[in-house]
Amino acid sequence: MTAQRDIRGVLITVTNGRLLLPNANVAEVITFSEPEAVENAPEWLLGRVRWRGWRLPLISFSRMAGWSQEDGHLGAKVAVLKALGGNPKLPFFAVLSQGFPRLVTVNATTLVQSHDMKELPLGVHSRVTLNDDPASVPDLMSLELLIQKAMGDKAA
């Protein structure tokens, strides 16, 4: 008999959607503050926010995925995510969140993939249902590459 493996996850609410990430990817959740503008940035790159001595790129996942052109700021939080790509200039980046992320337990009985590969928007690895709640699993490596491209030499 194989043991069922539970993974701790985080559901992050964004405008018109939810993101499901491993808990280990979320470094911290901070209060939203107006980001410092990045020149010639795409609309989904909201600017840079300060966190522990870093100036992190702040993205609107909803804008990137085409879910919304507006981001609600009332009660907004910022989820600081650990980058996976190994770029020393981009060890973290931030995602605009609507309220506090929610800790969840993920296992094979509670998680169901629910998409066709052709339907996935930019930055989305897969669409899932977790305990009957729809969510999207972001493609973190693609996000990092898109952020690096958008930041150019301003990543530091």
What does this structure look like?
Strands 3-6-7-5-4 form a 5-stranded mixed sheet. The protein has 2 helices and 11 strands; from the N terminus they run E-E-E-E-E-H-E-E-E-E-E-E-H. It has about 160 residues and is mainly beta. The mean pLDDT is about 85. It is globular, with a radius of gyration of 15 Å. About 10% of the residues lie in helices and about 45% in strands. The longest helix is centred in the last third of the chain and has 12 residues, at about 140-150. It starts with 6 loop residues before the first strand and ends in a 5-residue tail after the last helix. It has helices spanning about 60-65, 140-150, and strands spanning about 5-15, 15-20, 25-30, 45-50, 55-60, 75-80, 90-100, 100-105, 110-115, 125-130, 135-140.
Q: Whole-number average pLDDT?
A: 87
Could you say which overall geometry the principal axes of the C-alpha atoms support?
A: globular
Largest sheet: 5 strands, mixed
Query: Could you tell me how far the N terminus lies from the C terminus, measured between alpha carbons in angstroms?
Result: 50 Å
Give the neighbour order of strands across the main sheet: 3-6-7-5-4
Number of helices: 2
Model regions low in confidence, pLDDT < 50 over at least 5 residues: none
Extended strand count: 11
Order of helices and strands: EEEEEHEEEEEEH
**Helical content band:** 10-25%
> Over the alpha carbons, how many angstroms does the gyration radius reach?
15 Å
Which percent range describes the beta-strand content? 35-45%
Look at the helices and sheets and give the structural class.
mainly beta
